[in-house]
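Posting here for the record, re: iron/sulfur cluster.
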Amino acid sequence: MAGSRSDSQTLVARGSKLSALALYFPYMSGVPQSNPQPAAQKTFYLETFGCQMNVHDSEKVVGTLLQEGYRQVETVEQADLVLYNTCSIRDKAEQKVFNRLSDYKKYKAQGKTFGVLGCVAQQEGEKIFERAPYVSLVAGSASYRKLPEMLRQLEEAEGKGASSTAISSATEGEGFSTTTGGAPPFAVFEGWESMLPAASDSSTGNFPEKPKGKLVAQTRGSGLTTRDSAKTSSRKPVADSLVRITGLDDRETDKCFETEFTARTNPHRGYITIIEGCDKFCSYCVVPYTRGKERSRTSQSVLAEARQMADLGYTEIQLLGQNVNSYKDSEGNSAKRKTFAELLAAVGEVPGIRRVRFMTSHPRDFGRDIVDALDAVPTLCDHVHLPVQSGSTRMLDAMQRLYTREQYLERIAWMKSAKREISITTDMIVGFPGETETDFAETLSLLDEVGYDAVFAFKYSPRPNTPSIKLEDAIPDEEKARRLDVLMARQREIQIKRYKRYIGTTCEVMVEGKNEARGQYTARTTHNKTLNFTAPPSANPKAGSYAKILVTASFPNSLAGELVV
Ligand code: SF4
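Prediction output follows.
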């Protein structure tokens, strides 16, 4: 699979499939179950691609829309509003988004409204309006907390709502602010078309100087926005009388997308975002430019959400962030602030919660105190995903990963000295510019030295506007493919041995469902391994329940066993 991913893209990208969540089942955290969805007139369809962060963002977007009176439907044809939550991590992601948008074009004549959300929305910005003029809303993830305002503006603009609010220029330092009079109905800003810093900015980890949001033009009479062609002469003109709502100017915000309205897709296991954005600026990664700077929620807010989930019957929580290890509690009372390890432990101690996972860790910020927390709190799962990307310090330096092979191995040693066995998984990139056979051999030797339980490996491919795009991508694709094959073959041998060790042991699992065709239940261990098992008909374990399984067989990527009755 081509593509250079951020650290946190791992598990959903597994198996080369992007997640496409079209319909959410509303296990609502904040929206009452009695929310009058069936009577709602406005309908929406949401399609999601990308990592766990995108999946969870979509859960919050869905909750917000339901709260705003929308009803979710299963197909584009049924929807008034069609939203597309995009991922920019894969090779040619932008082109894939535009191809998908062109599929939507035929529905515009039916009066449907289209919005593009997520990383490609942030990356491409107003170019989306130019290439897909039937799109009315473009918003990056840093602007999602303004979604209710944007939706109301959209409705007003399209004559579907009665709101009198209006969008003004970015005089408050936030690109999307609401005023109540004298302001235009919505705004389009100049200066964000690249949305990316010069290489010199990114290489030092700084954001570009914030462009001044500038209102290009607006009209009131029709309720529709047009753009002043004289001021946009360097760009392709967009069609007049098309609605343009943007949420692109928030990447330097200190605020997170916190909402009490989250439509989780699973009633037993759920995500909580604790930190958004990333300040690491790895040389191949678009995330800092698309998701903005790091900002953390307060530990009190995270814990309140965890308690609420426990009250709703959730037993497993996964704490999410591009880099959870750099979590900085924004709690106002400094005496109450928690480190990431303390927050992890506190979530693990919430009554009713039986499993806590976290994703993703950056080795630079991975402290010994996290292993101490794993030792102290039994509900914290025996699994750490610690992306390394390369076994060569020279390559790590070129990738701007901010640690050496030796420092990475020091963190591995901490985990291996833990009181219980911790399953370790990682991400690897092969064929990064300048990677020699010697560098690649060091990556292979790291596999042997660590003994990973899973490796998510990818061929390097340059992403637009990242610093590494300036490096000569001289390794031919065939050679990258060869290295990927060699790496995966070596890892497969390692996994076969590692998984075999479980035969004869008893594992506790959370049941995920039943594969009727195979007559097996699917489940997950605390090590995050898939364990398929059989059970007598009388047992009939339910999804979300916990069970003890005797492991009887192993495979390179899964275990099999029998229910212990
Ligand atoms: S820049 Fe941030 S999100 Fe991207 S790979 Fe580096 S740590 Fe991960």
